[in-house]
TrEMBL record:
GO terms for cellular component: cytosol. This is Reactive intermediate/imine deaminase. It comes from Marixanthomonas spongiae. Transmembrane segments: none annotated. InterPro entries: RidA, RutC-like_sf, YjgF/YER057c/UK114. One of its GO terms (molecular function) is deaminase activity. Belongs to the RutC family.
């Protein structure tokens, strides 16, 4: 049976989906964007600040499921401009131990929800 994971410490979904779903010991998160859950404001002025907000939102979703970034097996990063890769990667790297970092792909896409610059989803396991 699947368990829906929902926290007020991350933005509410903007469509017919949940923040995450736990099935057994596997957690599948929806993509997080840089909506500040305290103000509902988008943070898109600075790519590093935007990425930090995305990662903080993901941290809150993982915490609600009783996990941390150490539990993450795979990340998917979607970005609107590959020129932002280095800045995004710099912030992303601060959330992981390089020796145990998850598998990952980074894909440039034409557009993202609310025309943000970065969206990140993860798969984690207890």
């Amino acid at each position: 049976m699947k368990k829906i994971i929902q926290t007020n410490n991350a933005p509410a979904p903007i469509g017919p989906y949940n923040q995450a779903v736990l099935k057994g010991n596997m957690l599948y998160t929806s993509g997080q964007i840089a909506i500040d859950p305290k103000t509902d404001n988008l943070i898109t002025d600075d790519i590093k600040a935007e990425t930090k907000m995305v990662m903080e939102n993901m941290k809150a979703v993982l915490a609600e499921a009783g996990m941390t970034f150490e539990n993450v097996l795979k990340s998917s990063i979607f970005i609107s401009d590959m020129n932002n890769f280095a800045a995004i990667n710099e912030v992303y790297a601060t959330y992981f131990n390089e020796a145990t970092a998850p598998a990952r792909e980074t894909v440039e896409v034409a557009n993202l929800p609310k025309f943000v610059n970065v969206e990140i989803s993860m798969i984690a396991s207890l």
